[in-house]
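Action item from last week, closing it out:
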Amino acid sequence: MVRRYYGFVRLKASSYFLIGGDSDDLIQEGLVGLYKAIRDYRSDRESSFRNFAELCITRQIITAVKTATRNKHTPLNSYVSFSQTPAASGEEGEPTMADILPGSTVHDPVNQVISSEEIESLVSCITSVLSDLESRVLSLYLDGRSYEEVAELLACDTKTVDNALQRVKRKVGTHLDSRAVPE
């Protein structure tokens, strides 16, 4: 069957252009369409095998052409490797993108110790410097409650809640300023 329809597949493929491919690629797609026609043809239908094969071959070729023009895989095909040199020359001593780009400092042990110390200091400030009302307002506010909800839970005005949060901001800001490293 393939030998019999090969010329027909070549004729169909010659009228299309595949970006990034050549005529052999289109012929191969046409042969895939022929294979699908052989696989799926049912003689109990009213169509002849030749008409069915022509339809399958044409659709397979058109699908290949459309897929090539969609640029769906362009990001994958034109990526920049982080582990190879930009020119991919493989020269020794030339830095890779991974060497050039700054890494995350999140897992740096020094930063982790400093961060934990800062958190301890902030918690200490909050427990020692804030009044009972300010602590309760802050806690409820950090739970995601609105000013109105906090005011209702604490049986006070929304202005009282706002004033308490302003004092908290000022006290915490003063604490953070006192811990800042001079430049």
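Closing note: The chain is about 65% helix and 0% strand.
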